[in-house]
Structures are given as structure tokens and as C-alpha cells.
Amino acid sequence: MAMRLRARLLEALAGDPEGSPAWIRELAEGDDAGHFAEDGAAWTVHGSMATLVAGIRALLLQALHPGAMAGVHDHSTYRQDPLGRLSGTVRWVVCLTYGSTAQAERETARVGRFHSRVQGAYVDGRGAERSYSAADPVLADWVHLAFADAFLTCQETWGERMPGGGRIPGGPDAYVAEWATAGRLMRVDDPPTTAAELRRRIDGYLERGELRSDERVREVVSFLRRPPVGSVAGVGYRLLFAGAVATLPRRYRQLLGVRRSPLPVVTLTRVVLAIAGRALASGEGRRAQDWARLRLRRLEAERAA
After folding, report:
1. Whole-angstrom Cα distance, residue 119 to residue 184?
2. What distance in Å separates the CA atoms of residue 124 and residue 55, rounded to the nearest whole number?
3. Facing residues of 120 across strands?
4. DSSP state, residue 125
5. Whole-angstrom distance between the N-terminal and C-terminal Cα of the chain?
6. Is the backbone of residue 164 left (phi > 0), alpha (psi -120 to 50) or beta?
7. Count H helices, E strands: the chain?
8. Measured between alpha carbons, how far is residue 236 from residues 56, 82, 121 in Å?
9. Which of 284, 288, 290 is nearest to 3 (CA)?
10. Which in 23, 82, 129, 148 has the greatest CB count within 10 A?
11. Cα 106 to Cα 5: distance, rounded to the nearest angstrom
């Protein structure tokens, strides 16, 4: 049972039931330490099981910007290939977090080539029609903010309290400052470097009336609530979805049209994450961090020689 669950999770996260596709193994290659320090804030947050909830939360929040939502609606394959879409995002995060700078640059270029084709028009929160491009710094800013806030919030809610987890080295500000590097790589102008600034920037979009809900948002929320997964996995996923909703501030939940469950979903989500963590640990394959450590130890040996 644990091995089947492990294979399902690895297929979803890495696109490979063994968890070792070529881009994961490439983490052991390269000639430098990469953008982020070993066991630093970004390594800790992105290596946590809480990322399973954070991904859902980030997508919910991102959907509220009509420009970002238009890009998803017009160009994303999430309905036809949700696991492929998920593993593609995971690949970008993992390569930037644990890879060499050369691998991070190649991954950023890969995402950039896809984004260059994502363009069209949308109606903004004030009712005016605007053109959009995924390479637009404003849309990149919103996606970066939603991502950073989701991963930070979920780490604080679950990651720090789970076996093998711990507090973020340097605290929340360290994570936001480190992940600002990813924002700059994706052409975000002046990404936030503190948790307080991050949340002020997000709330600014809402207060300026730049966020809104419509039929497209409701469609994405409906899909995220019940994606096409098996019945057993579906029970666990629905708890993760409820956990993601529970971490959203009330006014964002209202805009999304979702309610916080009366059940103790924060605790139940912790149980689901613990089960998933044990399943992933049941195999003998290396994690992304382990491949990256091979590179770092090799570089240390070469310097010592």
C-alpha cells in the first residue's frame, strides 16, 4: 500500500513513479552551489511535505487575478493533463531551489519559452479590457506573491510542526528574501524581501480592486476541489484542499466562493501529510536534496584537492 502511494505521489510530483527523472538526477551535476544555501530557508520550505497544500493554495490565490486567470483558461492544459501541469511546476521550483545556477537558468529559459506563447486579452477588476502576456512583470509579480505567501503560510502552519520539520532558518523574512531571487529570474520588478511586505503587496491588489471572481474562477475552484484522482487518494486530497482553504484570509475565501470547513481540517491535514511523508520515505530512492548534496560534496572534494 505504501509503495503504491509512493509511486502515485512521485508520478504527480516528478512525472516519474521512481522519482528520478533526468532533471532530478541533473541536480548532482553543475559547477557551483546554486542560488540557495544548503539547508537554508528555501531548501527547508520547499523540502517540506507542507508544499502539497501550498501548491493548492497558490493556485487558488493566483486565480483571483483576471489576467493570470485568462492565461490559465486560454492556454493551460490543467483540465486534460493535471498531473503534467503539476509536475512541470514542481520541476521549476526544484531546479531553482536545489540546482546549479546553470540548471536554474536552463529551467527559467524553458518556462520563459512557454510563457512567450501565453498572451491574449481579459477584463480587469474595474471592467476595462486589457491585453495580457505571461511575461508581463505585473502578472509575474502576482504569481510570485501568491506562490511565496502560500509556501510560507503552509510551512508555518504544518511544516514546522511535523516530524523531521523545523523552523525556517532565519525566520519568515529569510525565506521571502531568498525566494525573491526566483522572482527576479522571472522578471518580477522589486520582489518583496520581508514577510510583512509580501502580505502588504498581496492585500494591495485586493484593495485596489484588481482581483475579482467570475465563472472562470469558479470553474478552477471546482476543478481544484475535486480533480480526477482515485477514490482513496481523493479523500486525502479533499482534506488537503480544505486545509489550503482554511489558511486563506476570510476576504479571499469570500471572493473565491469557498468556506472554511467546520471540521478540524488543520489537524486532519497534518495527518494526511504525515502519511504521505511516510509513503515517500518507504522507498530507497534519493530526494531532490540528496542529489543536490552529491553535487555540493563533489565540489567540496574538488576544492580540497
Report:
1. 21
2. 25
3. 132
4. T
5. 46
6. left
7. 15, 2
8. 13, 17, 37
9. 284
10. 148
11. 31
Distance of alpha carbon 37 from alpha carbon 28, whole angstroms: 15
Query: How many CA atoms, within 13 angstroms, populate the side-chain half-sphere of residue 160?
Result: 13
Q: Which residue do the cell numbers 529559459 mark?
A: 109
In this structure, what C-alpha cell is assigned to residue 192? 518583496
Nearest to 9 by CA among 229, 255, 170, 263: 229
pLDDT of residue 25: 95
Q: Cell 505585473 maps to which residue? A: 138
Question: 150 with 142: CB under 8 angstroms?
Answer: no
Beta bridge partners of 119: 133
DSSP string, 3-56: HHHHHHHHHHHHSSTTS--HHHHGGG-SSS--SS-TTSHHHHHHTSTTHHHHHH
At position 257, the amino acid (one-letter code) is G
Dihedral over Cα of 107, 113, 114, 115: its sign? positive
Low-confidence ranges of the chain (pLDDT < 50): none
pLDDT of res. 69:
83
Distance CA 52, CA 31 (A): 30
Residue with cell 469557498: 258
Give the bridge partners for 131, in sequence order: 121
CA atoms of 26 and 7, how far apart (whole Å): 21
C-alpha 35/C-alpha 72 separation (Å) is: 28
In this predicted structure, what is the pLDDT of residue 161? 77
Contact 41, 168 (CB under 8 A): yes
Strand, helix or coil at 123?
strand
Total number of residues shown for the chain:
305
Any bridge partners for residue 123, and if so which?
A: 129
Angle between the 195-207 and 137-157 helix axes, to the nearest 10 degrees?
A: 120
pLDDT at 88: 78
